[in-house]
């Protein structure tokens, strides 16, 4: 059975930095990468890193244990299951009903489905 890793928004920001880097970074490098939009103290970054290690999302050398694409796929499945009873069609209908999709978005999705199914 696949292990489900659940992370907070703040922990996800740490993972995003590491995924973007493509390799392990130390805590200082992670903090520097976050400085552009976060003003977190060193201890905050270290706490978030340790939580990710404890959850099995990071190795001790701060290498992510899961690829970003894999994490996004799992979170998407969880979201569809939780809010749309596992039906992707219900998600698509909700997007159309909420006017979150433009006509161009719908055309691009149609083209994508036609090319990939």
What class do helices, strands and sheet pairing give?
Answer: mainly alpha
User: C-alpha Rg, in Å?
Assistant: 18 Å
Strand content: under 5%
Q: Which fold does the CATH topology of the largest domain refer to?
A: Penicillinase repressor fold
What value does the average pLDDT take? 92
In the CATH hierarchy, what is the architecture of the largest domain at level 2?
Orthogonal Bundle
Q: What does the overall shape look like? A: elongated
Summarize this, please?
This protein is an all-alpha fold and 117 residues long. 65% of the residues lie in helices and 0% in strands.
Describe the model:
With 117 residues, the chain is an all-alpha fold. It has six helices and no strands. The protein starts with 8 loop residues before the first helix and ends with a helix. The relative contact order is 0.11. The mean pLDDT is 92.
């Amino acid at each position: 059975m696949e292990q489900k890793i659940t992370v907070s928004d703040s922990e996800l920001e740490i993972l995003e930095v590491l995924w973007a880097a493509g390799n392990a970074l130390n805590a200082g490098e992670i903090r520097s990468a976050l400085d552009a939009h976060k003003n977190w103290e060193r201890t905050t970054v270290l706490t978030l890193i340790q939580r990710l290690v404890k959850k099995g999302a990071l190795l001790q050398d701060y290498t992510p244990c899961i690829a970003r694409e894999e994490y996004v796929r799992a979170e998407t499945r969880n979201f569809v299951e939780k809010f749309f009873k596992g039906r992707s069609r219900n998600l698509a209908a909700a997007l159309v009903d909420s006017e979150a999709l433009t006509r161009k978005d719908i055309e691009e999705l149609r083209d994508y489905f036609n090319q990939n199914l």
